[in-house]
From TrEMBL, chain A:
Source taxon at top rank: Bacteria
Coiled coil: none
Annotated transmembrane regions: none
GO cellular component terms given for this protein: membrane protein complex; plasma membrane
Name of the featured protein: ABC transporter ATP-binding protein YtrE
SMART domains, per database record: AAA
Membership in a protein family: Belongs to the ABC transporter superfamily. Macrolide exporter (TC 3.A.1.122) family.
UniProtKB/TrEMBL annotation, chain B:
Membrane topology, from the record: Multi-pass membrane protein
Compartment list: Cell membrane
Organism phylogeny: Bacteria, Pseudomonadati, Pseudomonadota, Betaproteobacteria, Candidatus Accumulibacter
Limits of the MacB-like periplasmic core domain: 21-244
Organism: Candidatus Accumulibacter vicinus
Protein name stated in the entry: Macrolide export ATP-binding/permease protein MacB
Keywords carried by this UniProt record: ATP-binding, Cell membrane, Hydrolase, Membrane, Nucleotide-binding, Transmembrane, Transmembrane helix
Membrane-spanning residues: 21-42, 271-295, 330-354, 366-385
Length: 241, 402
């Protein structure tokens, strides 16, 4: 097993709703190695979205440490965390979250624009990404002129444009029909094959079953950390659902 | 984020909601246009009054009998305490001063004018041929007083336009004999109508040679002496020379008051300049209102774009980047509105000048610059709060909002 990319130890996250305290995550310890394909599953309210937000540095734990690539990121300032997000983490959302007034190409280029990369290098990388994701003739279309699948492909292109080590996908197929969802998940798995660590949050069992490792969450606790045997893996490949 | 990218991003965000942008730009434009137009009116009024004053005659220095300023004790005071009168000799002496171009003595009184049974009270001004040049008067008909010895005048009179109309109606006035007081004069000229202006109303004036006027009023004093300095720069020199000459002639006593047109003009200038600033201040309130509108609209914009802000944070934007993006947008809207308002205001001032050609409604440069500056400053100032709010948004909550 390669070195741990993600090390969560003793993570607690408590939300205050009025007088009551809600423990979204209770004493969570998880290690995820570089290049893993992990599905986080569980019913709604189980804390899987909170976990994803913590992993993506969008939220801070109340207790515990989160080490990303050996570096403790929980103590970083907001500005430094933004830098880590920019360089190491790519997000794919259920509702795509494309900026409606920007074209597909501009949406893909957005992380590079925010990072202050020179326009020439941006154009080069966007052109390659458009080609890789089969969006060449959709470059100057706005999101409302794209189909759901195309939108999610733009979103994935955007998530990968900074070549992050980690991709966090929150219900990436939730707003798509089955065949487009299949297409999108294959794209993500393709990225994982190239060595990118992929973490997918879903409550779709069929989707979760494709991952090599499944984290089952319930009431903020990691209930089951299941590794699929190589036998099952091959079966899944032979007989695609 | 690089500056060009920031500007492009802000521009796209602004044009993404055309109605909102239009209304905001309009509000800002109206504010700036109000400043420009109102100051144009205020400054136009100032220039109008100054022009009216200048039309009395330029480089004018007026010598009045009597002292209005406190001076030291003088041996002359021991003999008599009444000020000496100004005489024609004084006026003639003033012509010797190097900085003096023209001198016109003026004796004034009221008398009756009668022609063929019509009788009317008029103001009679006794003066010399130089008067028409010094006072910048124009003749409608005939000629002015002939050159000659100031002490001996021919019995010729120049009458104002209104006197001509009332006394002669449709008849020819030139060459007619009129009786003024107990003397007969031949009308040789008619003054052009000037309408109601500042200073003496020349439409109801009768001008006769100064010696005859003094004889008519049985006095040898002058009402005042009008002096035209040889240039604008020599007004002060002329003033000093006049004072010196009069002092020499009046046994060393400084018993006249010398006023310049500049002093009167400066007072009006200051008065109307203050008014313009006051008007500009009132107009600036509309700019403050526009600034508050900028804040309101930007706050709504932040609320509407919550998801986008959350996304930008997820993609690695720092709070500073987001704050700058919103500030840039507010600044761009303000600048556009301000420039548009400037053009609008200048156009309106031009229209006013077209409609009223005699009214010089030019906005002063400082007002245009201050209008633009205030618009920019309020726009950015009121953009800070929404921008900070945007920068502080929690990405988790913003993203979960559908």
């Amino acid at each position: 097993m390669s070195a741990a990319l993600i090390e969560l130890s003793g993570i607690e996250r408590v939300f205050h709703l009025g007088d009551s305290e809600v423990h979204a995550l209770r004493h969570l310890d998880v290690r995820i190695s570089a290049g893993e394909y992990v599905a986080v599953m569980g019913p709604s309210g189980s804390g899987k979205s909170t976990l994803l937000n913590l992993l993506g540095l969008l939220d801070r734990p109340n207790a515990g440490t989160y080490r990303l690539a050996g570096c403790d990121v929980t103590t970083l300032s907001a500005k430094e965390q933004a830098r880590v997000r920019s360089e190491r983490i790519g997000f794919v959302f259920q509702s795509f979250h494309l900026v409606p007034r920007l074209t597909a190409a501009e949406n893909i280029a957005l992380p590079m624009t925010l990072a202050g990369i020179a326009p020439l290098r941006r154009a080069e990388r966007v052109a390659r990404a458009l080609q890789d994701y089969g969006l060449e003739n959709r470059a100057s279309h706005r999101p409302d002129q794209l189909s759901g699948g195309q939108r999610q492909r733009v979103a994935i292109a955007r998530a990968t444009i900074m070549q992050p080590a980690l991709i966090l996908a929150d219900e990436p197929t939730g707003n798509l029909d089955r065949s487009t969802g299949e297409e999108v998940i294959r794209l993500l798995e393709g990225l994982n094959d190239q060595g990118v660590t992929l973490i997918v949050v879903t409550h779709d069992g069929r989707l979760g079953a494709r991952a090599r490792r499944q984290l089952l969450m319930a009431d903020g606790v990691l209930e089951q950390d299941r590794w699929r045997s190589p036998q099952e893996l091959t079966d899944a490949c032979v007989l695609p659902t | 984020m690089r500056a060009p990218d920031l500007i492009r991003f802000a521009r796209d965000a602004a044009t993404g909601n055309p109605l909102r942008t239009f209304l905001l730009v309009l509000a800002m434009a109206i504010g700036v246009a109000a400043v420009v137009v109102l100051t144009a009116l205020g400054d136009g009024a100032r220039r109008y009054v100054l022009n009216q004053f200048s039309s009395i005659g330029s480089n004018l220095v007026i010598v009045l009998p009597g002292r209005s300023q406190t001076g030291g004790f003088n041996p002359g005071n021991a003999i008599t305490s009444t000020p000496r009168d100004l005489t024609i000799d004084d006026a003639q002496a003033l012509r010797r001063a190097s900085a003096v171009h023209r001198v016109a003595p003026l004796a004034v009184g009221t008398s009756e004018i009668s022609v063929g049974g019509k009788l009317r009270e008029v103001m009679v001004a006794g003066t010399t041929p130089e008067f028409i040049e010094v006072r910048r008067l124009t003749l409608a008909q005939g000629r002015f007083l002939p050159q000659g010895d100031w002490r001996r005048g021919v019995s010729e009179a120049i009458i104002g336009a209104k006197i001509r109309d009332e006394m002669f109606a449709r008849e020819e006035a030139l060459g007619q004999m009129v009786r003024i007081g107990d003397r007969r004069f031949r009308v040789v000229g008619v003054l052009a109508s000037t309408g109601q202006g500042l200073g003496m109303n020349t439409d109801e004036l009768v001008i006769v040679p100064v010696s005859l006027a003094q004889a008519m009023f049985n006095s040898n004093t002058l009402f005042r002496i009008l002096v035209e300095a040889s240039s604008r720069d020599s007004i002060d020199l002329a003033k000093a020379q006049l004072a010196e000459i009069i002092q020499l002639r009046h046994e060393g006593e400084q018993d006249v008051t010398i006023i310049t047109q500049d002093a009167v003009l400066a007072t009006f200038d200051r008065l109307l300049g203050t008014m313009t600033i006051a008007v500009a201040g009132i107009a600036a309130i509309s700019l403050a209102v526009a600034g508050i509108l900028v804040m309101n609209v930007m706050l709504v914009s932040v609320t509407q774009r919550t998801t986008e802000i959350g996304l930008l944070k997820a993609l690695g934007a720092t709070g500073a980047t987001i704050r700058n993006a919103f500030l840039t947008e507010a600044a761009m809207l303000s600048v556009t509105g301000a420039l548009l308002g400037c053009v609008l205001g200048l156009a309106m001032a031009a229209i006013i000048r077209q409609l009223y050609p005699e009214f010089p409604a030019f906005p002063p440069d400082w007002a245009v610059l201050a209008g633009l500056g205030t618009a920019l400053a309020t726009g950015i100032l009121f953009g800070v709060l929404p921008a900070r709010r945007a920068a502080r948004l929690d990405p988790v909550q913003s993203l979960s909002k559908r």
